[in-house]
Amino acid sequence: MDMAGSEDGMFSVSAAKKLIIDSRQYDPFLKFKWDGWMPIKCNVLAWRAEQDRIPTKIALNKRGMGLSEDSCPFCELHQESANHIFIGCIFAAEIWDRIAVWCRLDPIFVFEVRDILVLAKCLKKPKLNKRVAHCIVVTALWSMWNARNEMIFQDKEAKAYEVVSKIKSCSYFWIQNRSRFKSIEWSDWCKYPFGLM
After folding, report:
1. Helix, strand or coil for residue 79?
2. Nearest CA to 178 among 33, 46, 38, 40?
């Protein structure tokens, strides 16, 4: 196979895609799961966050933006990276703690975005509940990123309990409207999301 990605030397998108995929060494367990219950924008953000390809302050400085301030807007203690915003920050830790209580899970201890994205696969729950857990995790990443952007661009204070409320409402709305489970009750969802399926 030559640089064009096909055996006959002609370029094609599918051959280029295959060449890129084959050149990466992925553990199938760690492969990102795109979910139809979630809007594409959420899937894209989670996928990019996993690869550390979102425009954090560190990433922007690496691309030559020359930002004078690169601290996390939530804690202002560490540099803003994808892993810090979503996992390492005390603000993120509070969100994951609140999600663990809501979902009746053991405390969540992870070190990278990739770890939180494979969390659902590790749960000892039926397949459908694992999918719900994955949707909650992706919604959490989306909601934290939005809270971060509101702090930076709208000077709006972020509160963990408000972010968790958005996670509950958005994940409920998306699962109810994008899955076959149309009869999920909001009050039941707020009590325990895995007891519904």
Report:
1. strand
2. 38
The total of other beta-carbon atoms located within 10 Å of residue 176's CB is 17
The residue assigned the tokens 């954090």 is: 56
Global pTM value: 0.84
Q: Is 63 helix (H, G, I), strand (E, B) or coil?
A: coil
The one-digit pLDDT tens for each residue of the chain (197 residues) are 444 455 666 778 877 767 766 665 555 545 677 889 999 999 999 999 998 999 999 999 999 988 889 999 999 999 999 999 999 999 999 999 999 999 999 999 899 999 999 988 889 999 999 999 999 999 999 999 999 999 999 999 999 999 999 999 999 999 999 999 888 999 999 999 998 76
Residue with tokens 């409207």: 177
Burial code (b: 16+ CB inside 10 Å, e: under 16) for 116-125 equals: bbbbbeebeb
